[in-house]
Each structure stands twice: as structure tokens, then as C-alpha cells.
Amino acid sequence: MSSLAYLGPVTLFMISMSITPGPNNVMLTASGANYGLRRTLPHMLGILGGCFVLFAAIALGLGIIFERYPLVQTSLQVVGSLYLLYLAWKIATAPPPEFGDAEGRPLDFWQAAAFQFANPKAWVMGLTLMASFLPEGGNTVVNAFLLAGFAELVALPCISLWAGFGMAIGRWLKGPRSWRVFNGTMGALTAACVFFILG
Known about the structure:
Layout: H1 7-18, H2 23-68, H3 70-92, H4 109-115, H5 120-133, H6 140-172, H7 175-198
Helix pairs in contact: 1-5, 1-6, 2-3, 2-4, 2-5, 2-6, 2-7, 3-7
């Protein structure tokens, strides 16, 4: 029963980390505006699934590798930065939905899930979550999966707000010019997250 005492602090921690701006939320806003909530759902589920696996892996030893070997951290930063710049370019140059072509599509589940392993905000969340809230007693594997699962349950409505916010913005955008400005702005904000990665 003592583990139930962690639920309140974990909830507050995950809300504060999941609802604040970051690469995932910026991309979800752009995706919600361009593709709508339904087509953005695989992207959202990929974020949750990727973070779940990452958080559990951190609790089971991956975090130690990350802390002991700086080269791993540097490699992730480089890979994450390059991929984020690529995504920023795709967002910035996306055609307006009503004038789009077949190539325009949101991130799928696996792309979004894989990105979490190169997303520094996800690493910070996972390392802090497991270091602060993983119960010391009981089965470590079970505790890691339960904590990671509960954390992503809390994160779901938080990231959904960003996709919904993007969808609401999309309804106000009229004409190709306004879409170009919006997509360019969202692409620039996504690219700006690289400074957070390399900082």
C-alpha cells in the first residue's frame, strides 16, 4: 500500500513534464493542424509506447549505461539533432492540407516511438522518474513496468491537448499563405529544440 503514496507525486511530475513545450508537443501541434486528431493518433501512441519502453529500460539498467559512457549520450544528441532538423524541414515545407499531395503524412507509431530514444526530454523524464519514484521493495521489473505504464497514462491527456490545440488552429487557417506561415513557424520551433538537445 505504501507504493500508492507515489501516485500523487508521480501524477504531478508527469503532468508538469508532459504538458510543457518540447519536441513531441511542437510536432503534435503541427500534426494536429495539418492532419487532424484521428490521423495524429498513431504519432501520439508512438510517443507513449516509446517512452514506456525507454522508461522501463532505464529502470532496468539502460540509465547506468547512459550516465557512465558519455559517448552514448553524445551519439544520441547528434542523432536526435539531425533527425529533428529533418522533421523540422518536413513540417516547414508541408503543403496546406487542402492542397497537399499523397506524400504528406504524419509520423507513424514506429517513427514516433524510435524518436523517444534520441529525445533528451524523454531521457530526462525517464531518469528523474525512475530515480525518484521507483519503489525499492518488491520485484524491480514489475515495479518498473507499472510505474512506466502509469506515467504514460498520465501523459496521454497532456499530449492530446497539444494535438487538439493544433487541430483548433487548423480550423482558423484560411488559404495557402496562412498555412505556409504556420508550417514555417512550427518547423522553426521544431528546429529550435536542437538548442535544447545540444545545450
